Amino acid sequence: MGTLGRAIYTVGFWIRETGQALDRLGCRLQGNYYFQEQLSRHRTLMNIFDKAPVMDKDAFVAPSASIIGDVLVGPCPWCILSFIGDANSISVGSGTNIQDNSLVLVAKSNLSGKVLPTTIGDNVTIGHSAVLHGCTVEDEAFVGTGATLLDGFVVEKHAMVAAGALVRQNTRIPAGEVWGGNPAKFLRKLTDEEIAFISESATNYSDLALVHVAENMKPFDEIEFKKVLCKKHDKWDEEYD
To answer: Name one Pfam family in it (predicted).
Structure first.
């Protein structure tokens, strides 16, 4: 989208926002139409101009997550995070789970001068609160909780980044190794059991995601009915032994 197209898009956005604001003002003035309940304006999927996310039909994205801009998500069973593909593209393979509070970003510019996307392969496990910025995570790799991966970083297949690690730019972790620390460095080779655990972890999260999908797909009336049941049985039964 060129400069003119973005300008027209922005004007259209302003007009829509103005219309919504006027509608709310009119409801307040009419009194009977005024409502107090504030509805969340959060959107799971959001475009940036003409760049819109593309989701596989089998991907599970939590209602609290945000996927913004040029992002391609395959049949990913577990996405509870924020993807921001504003300056470049993000792609996520199949069977990959990206856990709560993680953040996946792209790099428009850095010290190397390269334009870097973020690429995540198949059957990858990324732990809670991890940050990935302009890097590549190959198939069946493992990124621990709270790890930070900077521009140009590559995790090879069957490699592991330890929890809390900070991996510097343009670092490469060879297959079968675990790195940790700040800055991250080689710790040791992974055992066969640990390599098998990486694939097993992705499978376990795929199975667990089915439960979350079922809960998130429940209609409004079923949710309200369960609330009534919970209130009805919230007191301790005196006959309970």
So the answer is: Hexapep
C-beta neighbour count of 203 within 10 angstroms: 14
Q: What are the helix (H) ranges across 31-129? A: none
Residues 6+ apart with CB under 8 A from 70: 48, 51, 53, 85, 86, 88, 89, 90
Distance from CA of residue 190 to its chain's centroid?
27
Per-residue pLDDT tens over the stretch 44-60: 788 877 778 888 777 77
Query: How buried is residue 102: exposed, middle or buried, by Cβ count under 10 Å (0-12/13-18/19+)?
Result: buried
Q: What is the DSSP letter of 25?
A: H
For tokens 């990959």, name the residue.
96
Peptide bond into 174 cis (omega under 30): no
Cα separation values, 105 from 14, 43, 134, 167, 201, Å: 27, 18, 6, 15, 24
Q: What is the pTM of this model?
A: 0.72
At 235 the three-state DSSP class reads coil
177 backbone dihedrals φ, ψ, rounded to 5°: -115, 155
What does the pLDDT look like over 110-159, one tens digit per residue? 666 677 888 999 999 998 899 998 889 999 999 999 999 988 889 999 99
Angle at 32 between CA 29 and CA 37, to 5 degrees: 90
List the one residue out of 93, 103, 91 whose CA is nearest residue 130.
Answer: 103
